[in-house]
Amino acid sequence: MKQFSKLFLLAMLVIFASCKSDSVEEEQQGPTQDALRFENGIVVSDGEEDKELIFTADSEIIKGDGLTIAAMTNTPNVAKVYNVVDADRAPNSNDGQPVSNMWWSITGTDYDSPSSYYSTVNGDNMVFTEYTDGTAHLVGTTVSGTCVVDVDVWFMDKKTWAEWEAIGGGHKKEGTAGNASNSEDMSFYVIDGSRSTLTANGGDCDMTGTFGLIQMPDPNDPNTPNFGAHIGPGGANYDSNIGALGLSTWGWITDLSTGEKLYTMDFNFRLELAEEECDDCIGKVTDLTLNWDWHHDYRVRVYQRYENTCYATKIFDSVVGANENFTINGSNSNGTFGSYVYIYVGNCYYTKIKTNCYLNIGPGYRRGVVEVVSGHSTQGGELCEYEPPHHWCWWW
């Protein structure tokens, strides 16, 4: 064991000594930006290296998803977030169909039964989020009388009209806004039945419990039309607001255990782009997306203190390209970074970012060539834009 410790310390000594030769080529490539400088082949740090930070063999074992580059992450990036707005059901609003966002049919023909329609109550609307990987997520609650339905529905395989039509898809145009809409303006999804649920509770519910939800008509049945879920201008078919952004789709509510089809339903609602909400850094930082603002690729390693001890633990290690974003996540048991994250370029310490919210960091905060793009804190949620003090200056 002693022999292993000696070998490890020797290896670490060689690694950090190699700072001298790691970036000589960079120095010799002519004019460079002032932000990343080298002296005698060594990257110039912020001069604030933590001398109490101890590296052991365990320090090089990445905790969490430390190899994640934002563009390659398994967690898709958010494209747009919308608030769901109830549609007025035009032209059927005078036939017993109330302002609503969902229809849950018990008989399949109860179109004019007000109790089968669900809507927003007290401003507690659903939220529809689109992701860059072609998926989308509808989540929130909708209410009819004392029946409250928790909606957790995923959509997948986003396509343009041309792509949708090429696989035999159709556009179900009906209602005031739907009949006035253009297929070319629509995007199309399919409900992901493998992870979509509706949970009903309350005295006015015909059935209570958690149910599955699958696309109707069945997109894999060649004997039925394939309408999927469409989103775009006039997408809320039954609504008087022609051209307003909306969504319509149809589904089978199923027994979650057996898959038996129990009821039919539809979503029919408008969408309004949600205002971005953020807050100061409160508590501790849990994750950061950082931008490598430099014109050369470099190996970047990021460490934090293991459970706030003096021992370093690695949370990221990858080659980062010019202007590339990368994401780091806190590895403490509470999901945070602790006081700092420590950034190494090549084999050398470069800078650190304070992550205990004593400094109100946020998008726009930078240390050298590393800039914060986004992040979250435990009590404040999404971080707001960083506002530097008037007396600030850069260390490079």
UniProtKB/TrEMBL annotation:
Signal peptide: 1-17
Keyword Signal: yes
Keywords: Signal
Name of the protein: Lipoprotein
Organism: Winogradskyella pulchriflava
